[in-house]
């Protein structure tokens, strides 16, 4: 728009004024040229056949401390049944302590799937490598 107007008009601060006008103009926003590569088609996730076959996990950190001093939560979620395990942990746990928590989960039926998933993930740099070395994997 600036170049089009510059052919016939000019005033001090013209470019700044045009930028302000275009930022507030609804029509200008709607017809704005997209400078990004077009997105690909959505690829749906496959539906698991068994519960705990496909899981996701997350670490929620920087929480207020509980009475027992926990300040993080390890969330393990099953995509099929939409059930989750919430394990209280300390954000400062070493790889030894994470290995201990992992070993205590053996009574839960999700362990084979969790083990496969955890082997593929890294927790803050080389901590994941230390963790699996101590568990024996």
From TrEMBL:
Pfam families named in the record: Integrase_H2C2
InterPro entries, alphabetized: Integrase_H2C2 (IPR041588), RNaseH-like_sf (IPR012337), RNaseH_sf (IPR036397)
Listed GO MF terms: nucleic acid binding
Top-rank taxon, per record: Eukaryota
Location of the Integrase zinc-binding domain: 1-33
The protein, known as: Integrase zinc-binding domain-containing protein
């Amino acid at each position: 728009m600036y170049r089009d107007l510059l052919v016939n008009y000019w005033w001090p601060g013209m470019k700044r004024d045009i930028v302000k006008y275009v930022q507030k103009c609804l029509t200008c926003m709607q017809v704005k040229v997209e400078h990004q590569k077009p997105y690909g088609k959505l690829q749906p996730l496959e539906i698991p056949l068994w519960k705990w076959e496909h899981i996701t996990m997350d670490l929620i950190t920087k929480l207020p401390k509980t009475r027992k001093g926990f300040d993080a939560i390890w969330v393990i979620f099953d995509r099929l049944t939409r059930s989750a395990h919430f394990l209280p942990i300390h954000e400062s746990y070493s790889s030894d302590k994470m290995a201990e928590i992992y070993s205590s989960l053996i009574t839960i039926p999700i362990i084979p799937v969790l083990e496969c998933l955890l082997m593929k993930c890294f927790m803050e740099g080389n901590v994941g490598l230390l963790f699996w070395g101590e568990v024996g994997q």
